[in-house]
Amino acid sequence: MISKSGVAPTQAEITTVLDTILTAQTSAASVDASYALCDLLLNSVGFRGLKNYGILAEIKKAAADKKSGTRRESAQNLLGALFERFPPQQKISEVIFMLQDGGMVACALDALADKGAVVRDAAQYALDALFGNLSAEALVVGLIPILSTYLAKRSGKWQGTVGGYKLLQRMADKAKLTIGCSKEEANDKDVLRDALGMKLAGLIPIVESGMHDLKSEVEKQAVATMTSLTTLLSNDDVAPRIPLLIATMQNPSTETLQKAIHALSQTTFVAIVTSPVLALLTPLLERSLNTPTTAQEVLRQTVVVVENLTKLVHDPVEARTFLPKLKPGVKAVQDRASLPEVREMATRAASVITKAMGDDSSNLSGAIERTSTEDVAKVLEEEIKKAGGLSGDLDVFKLARPYICGMVAEDANHRQTPRISARVTPYLEQLMKEPGSAGTVGTAVQQFYIDEDHRKYGQPIKEDDGEIEIVNTDFSLAYGGMLLLSHTNLRLLKGHRYGLCGRNGAGKSTLMRSIANGKLEGFPSQDVLRTCFVEHNQGEDADISILEFVAKDPAIAKEGKERISEVLSEVGFTAGPQGRQSEKVGSLSGGWKMKLALARAMLMKADVLLLDEPTNHLDVANVKWLQEYLKSHTEITSLIVSHDSGFLDEVCTDIYHYEPGKKLACYKGNLAAFVKQKPEAKSYYTLSASNAQFKFPPPGILTGVKSNTRSILRMTNCSYTYPGASKPSLHDVSCQLSLSSRTAIIGGNGAGKSTLIKLLTGETIPTTGRVEKHPNLRIGYIKQHALEHVEMHLEKTPNQYLQWRYANGDDREVHMKQTRVLSEADKAQMEKMVDLGDGGGGKRIEAIMGRQKWKKSFQYEIKWIGLLPKYNSQISRETLIELGFSKLIQEFDDHEASREGLGFRELSPKVISKHFEDLGLDPEIANHNEISGLSGGQKVKVVLAGAMWNNPHLLVLDEPTNFLDRDSLGGLAVAIRDYKGGVVMISHNEEFVGALCPEQWYVVDGRVTHKGHLAVAADRFEDSSRPGSGFNSSVASSAVSSATASAVNSGAEDNGDMAFKSKKKKKMTKKELKDRDVRRRLRHIEWLNSPKGTPHPPDTDDEA
Description:
- The chain is of the alpha/beta class.
- The chain has 42 helices and 22 strands.
- α1 (about 10-25) runs antiparallel to α2 (about 25-40), α11 runs parallel beside α15 and α20 (about 395-415) packs antiparallel against α21 (about 420-430).
């Protein structure tokens, strides 16, 4: 059957046109004649003419004509015209071009090596035209096998090889997620990414061989192609290691392999492992396992990586593809490794591999069988027969059948069933006997696979569930140059409460903010759907009363003052001149600010509440109140971002989760139900350092403090009243802290917890009573509104901020404390004449120059105004305090303490970025991103890094859990648990406090009560049973000791004054030294035989 109504031209006519093309004098004439030939064929015999008239054979012949550059160029021009015009109109021509008689792609690739630039350009044009016309499935099923064959033969010219690698690179680049593409394009990219990912196992060895090519151009292009191919790994765990893995492939040696394996063994694998990841890592792991000279330590690391990876392979089909390559290597290690520890690990890894491959039972439990090309062929032939059969062209159909079936199989396996008919109908249009029957076949095949998909994966949940739908939108979301979500759907039902879950930096707050600002495409506007963003941030109007603050919002003012006052009372703000409504906004604690934001939302009669970390700053009673409020108002829909797993469990009816591939997926039920469906999301529950590891630097030694339970900071009978307040915030408080303290300060909102911390750290001065601290004590302090620390430095990068803060050898933030600011009285004090009674008369102090031990205290070297340094005097600490110079001493002590902590810290960008990395902030971000562009969680890490730079002895955290996501919270909990200094924290997060603090101080109405001896809930840590975890070592003992002999309930050590004796070291005899060395050696040997991860026992001089 002829494609179009035109009459078929004779062979002679076609030969004449071909001659015209091949002998044309100019390129333009050759191109015009080529397009004319395409039109002639398309209007008559169509694709059949390409072979019947011998056109393709003629092109191959002309392309190989060494004598005539014109003929070679014209051959490529004609090929370009055919590649450009035929596939869009007659899809079946793809089969002719790529598969019949060896295909034409190799001809174009060979021409890239031609010495004539015009020939090379024409060949490149032809390849581009074909590439542009192929669908995602056609690229994978048609073009990849051709390129694989071409690149594997290694006998062609290098320019052709480079061209082949370039096409592979373009394919990988085409699959990348980009900002601003349409939904269809995004769907094409998804299909191409999934299908290419499955083919990586075959492509990586081919590209890797090019990376070792002697021709530098080929090597360069192969590295570029490999870099592009690795972007197909949507695995956050492996992504940071990719440059190192590519370098290892490029320069294979024992050293580079060791480095790569070491880096992988340091990686915590959390995300599900899929084919692309296995394809990349299997060759490296295989090489490490099978090299006889691999060191035992490297073998151990390799086996650990294999075990960790295999645990996360959820698809037995993928496991059966890759793991058989690793199994013999692991088996060999199991049999032949010299260290028993390595053999034991290999045995464990081997059993995990066996389990993953489903070897225990012959059937693949839990595996969903893949659709093969043969399966599709049976269905396709059946449908073609039903629709009246083929008109002829059996030789073409014989080539086309595996091609069409391969594409349908790709779509069926990646669950892209709506695309199937477009992979069948256009290819059969020219081959079927009955007009229009190709469409019938396409629809029937598609329907078969849609039903098959439902059989395998279950029917999709019907959406019309009788509920009122208020939002249903498809959107993409980007932040700066980063794509966060790509063409995903958000559907909200009235009265449902949705929890938003995802890793830190996934874009949860960005999504909320873009909804609140009306920037989310397809989300109903404020006049259709009233949306209110509830956040605790009312800093700009600190000086007006609460009632005025709420009433000044034009959207709320129309409600009238009575209604506003009524709603405020409902939330807990009492009315009247003495009530809370008349208080200033600035005087509210974090929890009350949150309630105020909720009251505003109630007054705005919001349909949708956007709650970003609503439980931050709320005490237990208020969290309970918020839960009841949300559950009782069934007409309000809420979208909640929270790190409080208990709250999400209690409140949520559905969970939206950030899935790989930049999509949102909705799961019915609360957080616990969601974790059952997606076990890898368990990190929303336990405190673990698996995704975010913090390392706190060890605190330095404190002069005279030999015992961890010796108090180093003490408060005696302190009271404090805020200026202008009628009653004191704190009343007659006494407490003390030691290096082993793990203390939580707990109390209602506004009870005075932050005030207590500020008094302890010297931020504020008590109205009555005194605060004493060890002269060398360094305190790391993080405020409740942690971001206050960096608010004045938003234009700096984190690295610059740290350099600024410690530029002068001590911590600049200390100078901003109230205890350090000189009041008028202090300035007058500095003018005071001091008479030491040494006959020298009265003198004025200029500065303290130095300090030294004196009896049980210190004496300070004083420089006098107008006198030379040789007249400096030594005055004891007590005398100076008596004379009223406590602030001067305080300043010098802080400077000395800071200098001691910074003594071995080099303030260079490289060292600083390593410090940031230890505290969980990517060095790339720390060095190049301004603080203003960081997320809340990242800013907290900057503040943490700032506080920990000078190795503090005591870490004071005011609500540390407020801005951290689950991963960072787990990392922080483990870091605090293993930290060797003291920790005091205010936190409403019961899970966090209960896991860390055996000692708790309750603050109620300005009075403090102490509770010690609390058992620590170690089971809240993911690694609570791990040998060598902090609870079994030093901190466990410190937790016990702070319960038995803590600063609260033991009076033995603490009732004396805070004087620190310096103990004189006794010189050891030769025998004692010898015995000590023996003990140390035995301890070291014992440690070498202990399980990996056990901390090295300390070498101390005061041992028995």
